[in-house]
């Protein structure tokens, strides 16, 4: 049983990354464009306002990159830091616990993005597609040995 679960780990991680990236990007799109119910209370955030507008841009861009699996570790690192800032500067001064201060989403996104920093994109990411293209034929070989050069899946 453990062997089967371990072999499915990259795929489960890839699906996890896709869902988290989509949800994160939706938060940014809601704040910037007023879609999906808009920002808190409806509407959009005024361009350039600190910190809300910048957080929304990070959510949209970072979430999209994580969703696609393109630059996953860097995008997740910036996104995680953004959510840590949101939690400690916006939510935590209101009350100690996330249930009391409304910071559950910030805390969860912070930790899930931090997890992706360490695990990488898993399966289904564009990073893997570009990495495999660069390996085959890049040194003038015929690609027969490319499988031995591939990095193992981080899981």
Could you provide a short overview of the structure?
The chain has 155 residues and is an all-alpha fold. Helices cover 66% and strands 0% of the residues. It is globular.
Helical content (DSSP H or I, runs of 4+): 55-70%
SSE-based structural type: mainly alpha
Order of helices and strands: HHHHHHH
* Approximate strand percentage: under 5%
Biggest sheet, open or closed, and with what strands and sense? Answer: none
Beta strands, count = 0
Query: N-to-C terminal Cα separation, in Å?
Result: 17 Å
**Average pLDDT for all residues:** 86
Q: Supply Rg.
A: 19 Å
The number of helical elements comes to 7
- Outline the low-pLDDT stretches: 138-150
Shape: globular
What does this structure look like?
The chain is mostly helical and 155 residues long. 66% of the residues lie in helices and 0% in strands. The chain is built from seven helices and no strands. Helix 2 runs antiparallel to helix 3. About 8% of the residues have low confidence.
């Amino acid at each position: 049983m453990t062997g089967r679960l371990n072999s499915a780990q990259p795929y489960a991680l890839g699906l996890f990354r896709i869902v988290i990236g989509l949800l994160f990007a939706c938060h940014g799109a809601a704040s910037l464009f007023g879609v999906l119910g808009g920002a808190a209370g409806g509407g959009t955030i005024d361009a350039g306002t600190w910190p809300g507008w910048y957080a929304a841009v990070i959510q949209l861009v970072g979430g999209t990159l994580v969703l696609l699996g393109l630059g996953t570790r860097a995008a997740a690192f910036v996104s995680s830091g953004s959510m840590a800032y949101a939690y400690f500067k916006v939510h935590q001064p209101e009350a100690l616990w996330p249930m009391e201060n409304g910071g559950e989403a910030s805390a969860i996104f912070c930790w899930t993005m931090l997890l992706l920093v360490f695990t990488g994109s898993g399966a289904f990411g564009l990073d893997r597609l570009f990495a495999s293209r660069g390996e085959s034929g890049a040194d003038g070989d015929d690609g027969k040995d490319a499988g031995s050069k591939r990095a193992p899946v981080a899981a």
